[in-house]
Amino acid sequence: MMEDLASAFAGLSGFSPMMMINRSCTCATTRLIQCRGFGVYQNDISAKFDKSPDEVPDLAKEDFLARKKIIDQVAAWVDEHQDKTPQIIYKNEWVPILYGYEIVKGSAKRNRDWGHLIFTDLTLTRYLLVMCFGDPKCNCGSPFHHDYDAIVKYNTDRFMSLLKYLHHDDARPNWVRATYTTSKNRSLDPDFLNSLEGPKAGTSTTPPIFHVTPDNFTPSLLASDIEKIDNLLTSSRRKLPPSSVKNEVLGKKEGRPEMKTYLAGNEKNKRQCAYCEKVGKHDMPMCGRCKLVRYCSPECQKAAWVNHKIFCKKATSTKAA
């Protein structure tokens, strides 16, 4: 694992985990910092989707194929429009940099807190966010499809809040354009790429398109998010944003969308191993001590203990207090 490799080099003078690019990175803060430090192309995750689904264990097959469909569609648009006029964005080029992310490591508490695909232009000022959902109609009695709009808007506001916080001094964000697909239709509405002027209402056959700017976003970072982001910035020897910027992006828990109908939006993933991140078919056993993480096997739990024991002991001591 990349974390283990980073630990091995941690004692070297001048080493920072930010120096290692991991295509499977799920931390949006890390990825954005690395995009500015190493360039957009170095953070391109397209190659991960040149593999077969079986070679990408951190995604279920359906999730892999849904994301690959979008990446291929955007790549085809770039091939057709790159360096041609008119330029909708710089060189008409989009680069996928994330395929499943949380704002900062440890910030996602429920499924609704996880974003899916993020594309950036070459200037790091314009972004596309695409969520890949399941069937828009369900016979289970939970009309979760009604919450898709709310989840996408919520994640778009969160991502814009992060951009404003990280890029407050340079490459300030212009907008984040967002939509979603479902298993019924995995293709993007052509207007999502061809017309970047503003939002578009959904229809009976196409999801809505959201267009969030620094002028209309909802501040959505929690104090705990900002604390984690600041820790990352400090560890990578970067200057912290001023308190005035913090106040502009700070939201409240009450601002999170209510997922009462979309039950999966409130659930943690009980089938994912905290170490190898493999998603199984059944709920995985919890750590018997802290009861905060799950592992698929005793081997994974043992391998994770070196890094987990600090948090595990802290969690249990807090509960005891």
TrEMBL record:
Q: Which keywords appear in this protein's UniProt record, sorted alphabetically?
A: Metal-binding, Zinc, Zinc-finger
| Recorded GO MF terms | zinc ion binding
What the entry lists under InterPro entries is as follows:
Znf_MYND
Boundaries of each MYND-type domain copy?
273-312
The protein's name: MYND-type domain-containing protein
- This protein's species is Gloeophyllum trabeum (strain ATCC 11539 / FP-39264 / Madison 617)
Organism lineage reads as:
Eukaryota, Fungi, Dikarya, Basidiomycota, Agaricomycotina
